């Protein structure tokens, strides 16, 4: 009878251990599921932020490049305008007048008059500029 009682207690304890083991396994599985879900949510949120920041960065850089392009375009057209004005001034400045910059000295320029130039006069204007007057045949 004691043996039967021990067998019954052993069976009862084994069933309780199996039940406890099953409930612990279920709790661990549930916790793993929750943690996996949290990790997936965190990774998804982080990836969304990375994508958003990347898209924002691309947008900002595109705007900067566009803005610099408009500045470059306007400056190129301004330079073209100056080139046209310079060509016009060279055409009107008297046949054969050439201006060179002296490479050996800084801010030194040479004005070369044409061979036909005669009656060369130099004087100072009212604005203190040196003026060279000549007549070309």
UniProtKB/TrEMBL annotation:
- State the UniProt keywords alphabetically: Membrane, Transmembrane, Transmembrane helix
What residue ranges are annotated as transmembrane? 46-67
Q: What is this protein called?
A: Protein MobB
Q: Which organism is it from?
A: Kosakonia quasisacchari
């Amino acid at each position: 009878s004691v043996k039967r009682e021990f067998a019954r207690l052993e069976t009862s304890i084994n069933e309780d251990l199996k039940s406890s083991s099953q409930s612990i396994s279920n709790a661990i599985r549930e916790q793993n599921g929750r943690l996996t879900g949290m990790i997936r949510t965190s990774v998804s949120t982080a990836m969304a932020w990375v994508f958003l920041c990347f898209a924002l960065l691309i947008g900002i850089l595109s705007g900067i490049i566009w803005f610099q392009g408009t500045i470059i375009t306007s400056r190129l057209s301004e330079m073209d305008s100056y080139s046209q004005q310079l060509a016009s001034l060279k055409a009107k400045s008297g046949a054969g007048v050439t201006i060179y910059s002296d490479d050996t000295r800084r801010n030194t320029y040479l004005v070369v008059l044409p061979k036909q130039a005669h009656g060369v006069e130099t004087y100072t204007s009212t604005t203190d500029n040196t003026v060279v007057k000549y007549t070309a045949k």
